[in-house]
Amino acid sequence: LVASVLLLAFSPTESVAGELGLDGPMMQGGLVTGHTEPGAQVTVDGKPVRVSKGGAFLIGFGRNAKPTSALIVRHVDGFETRKILRIKQRDYKVQRINGLPSRKVTPKPEDLARIKDDNAKIAGVRRLDTIEAGFASGFIWPATGPLSGVFGSQRILNGKPKNPHNGVDVAAPFGAPVTAAADGTVALVHPDMFYTGKTVMIDHGHGLSSVYVHMDKILVQDGQRVSKRTPIGAIGKTGRVTGPHLHWGVSLFGVHLDPSLLVGPMPSSAPKNGG
């Protein structure tokens, strides 16, 4: 046993010397960056994974990821490396939020078509599988302030249980800057989604995307290339909110990840109290 990765017994067609490295938290909500030789083929739980020209690939573990995952790397020489990844399980908080407009908690029939259209646009971005590797820039916090919502928590809105929180909420003063968390291409700009208000999504390549919502202003355009720290908007309170904050989410295709695991502690310069 090495860290949280267990090497399976090799069959005669497996290579002990195959190049393979894994970097990132092996836990629910974690994103792991793999490294192998260019030209290798990778599958995770039987599904093929894009490998960059430099040999990088991504593995994401969702909120309810099972305790183990099977990784197979087929090297350019035809041999295989097989690993069972052991995924740390987590406990999640229950968060109660009251005072939301009833229409935002239980939408009216006339809102459902709008919500369906919003969801389709978001899902379209999360299906992208581009060759760019913006994720290689590393990630930073896109805004600074206290965390008012954490990944995976079960939210009870106006007393009604809802889906688990799929990102983190950063409480910050109205109008404070929001920046791109990593290099990428703006894949969605929307001025007024039902739940998320002013919304931006960035494609970081290989199926990895980030979303920034509830903003007051949007400073980028669809298709624009951005670098880490590029200003993309300003903190607001559009959509379903009780006060100004940024909801920041990261997904690998349809798998929601914990953004806080990508960036480490909030910078010490963050204000003590949100606006």
How would you portray this structure in words?
- The chain has 275 residues and is mainly beta.
- Strands 10, 13, 15, 16, 17, 19, 21 and 22 form an eight-stranded antiparallel beta sheet that branches.
- A hairpin with a 2-residue loop joins strand 21 and strand 22 (255-257).
- The protein contains three helices and 22 strands.
- The N and C termini lie far apart (47 Å).
- It has helices at residues 102-105, 109-126, 260-263, and strands at 5-7, 20-23, 31-36, 41-44, 47-49, 56-60, 68-74, 80-86, 94-97, 147-149, 154-157, 160-164, 168-171, 177-179, 184-193, 197-205, 208-215, 217-218, 225-226, 231-234, 245-252, 255-257.
- Helix content is 9%, strand content 39%.
Layout of secondary structure:
Layout: E1 5-7, E2 20-23, E3 31-36, E4 41-44, E5 47-49, E6 56-60, E7 68-74, E8 80-86, E9 94-97, H1 102-105, H2 109-126, E10 147-149, E11 154-157, E12 160-164, E13 168-171, E14 177-179, E15 184-193, E16 197-205, E17 208-215, E18 217-218, E19 225-226, E20 231-234, E21 245-252, E22 255-257, H3 260-263
Parallel strand pairs: 9-11
Antiparallel strand pairs: 1-8, 2-3, 3-6, 4-5, 4-7, 7-8, 10-13, 11-12, 13-21, 14-20, 15-16, 15-19, 16-17, 17-21, 18-20, 21-22
